[in-house]
Amino acid sequence: MQANVELKRVVAEIYSYVIAAQVKYCKGDMKHPFFEQTYLNIAMFNRGLRKHADALAIWQRLEALQRELYGEESPLLLHTLKNIGTCYTGLGKSEEARGYFSNVVDIITRCGSAKDSEDMKRKDKEDIAGIYQSFYLTHVADRDFEKALEYTEKSHEIIKDIYGERSKRVASKYYQKANSCLILGRKDEAITNIEKAIDVHTNPAVD
């Protein structure tokens, strides 16, 4: 345990040194492209330590830099925006998180094209389903299980469309819906969803 603490301290010091060296090299220009990878590395490091506030501060620096480099609606912002939303969720700031998650969905939707390959269309759907899962988590944190159920339904429909009704991924959504229904006092719906989850999980199609 002590070794891990020491390693984390050393890594943090290294990142501090790297930032200072880059500031000097770039003559104080904090929007220099060299900072992009450094910000990403530091943000991921802090996220791994569950230091949400520290990670958020760096992700936001990265967001500002990437908007400057690539434009306001570039798909290259998606990873950063998702992580900012996740940090806000970890800090208990659900509204702020949902704002960023909405931005992610908007960018994916606007950048999609009928000319995209089937693999790209599938990836976009998977990404949106994942963001709807993130919305679900914010509503669970707020104890708003009606909205949580709504976003599970949205995610569920996309997962069914991608993988088919008999996928184990679909089974997990039935379990999730059952949990929300149970908390909302909808016992019959909860039982129905549990039964569907068990059926799919027991006799799945090959994904």
Notable traits:
single chain, 207 residues, mainly alpha, Serine Threonine Protein Phosphatase 5, Tetratricopeptide repeat
Task: Describe the structure in your own words.
The protein is mainly alpha-helical and 207 residues long. It has one domain (52-202): Tetratricopeptide repeat domain (Serine Threonine Protein Phosphatase 5, Tetratricopeptide repeat, Alpha Horseshoe), CATH 1.25.40. It is 79% helix and 0% strand. Helix 4 (78-90) runs antiparallel to helix 5 (94-111). The protein is elongated and about 65 Å long.
Q: What's the helix and strand layout?
A:
Elements (H helix, E strand, L loop, with lengths): L1 H24 L9 H14 L3 H19 L7 H13 L3 H18 L6 H24 L3 H19 L4 H16 L3 H16 L5
Helix pairs in contact: 2-3, 3-4, 4-5, 4-6, 5-6, 6-7, 7-8, 8-9
Uncertain segments:
none
Total discrete domains: 1
Mean pLDDT: 88
State the CATH topology.
Serine Threonine Protein Phosphatase 5, Tetratricopeptide repeat
Report the major sheet: none
CATH homologous group name? Tetratricopeptide repeat domain
Instruction: State the secondary-structure class.
Output: mainly alpha
Q: Could you give the distance between the termini?
A: 40 Å
What is the compact description of this entry?
With 207 residues, the chain is mostly helical. It has one domain: Serine Threonine Protein Phosphatase 5, Tetratricopeptide repeat, CATH 1.25.40. The protein has helices spanning 2-25, 35-48, 52-70, 78-90, 94-111, 118-141, 145-163, 168-183, 187-202.
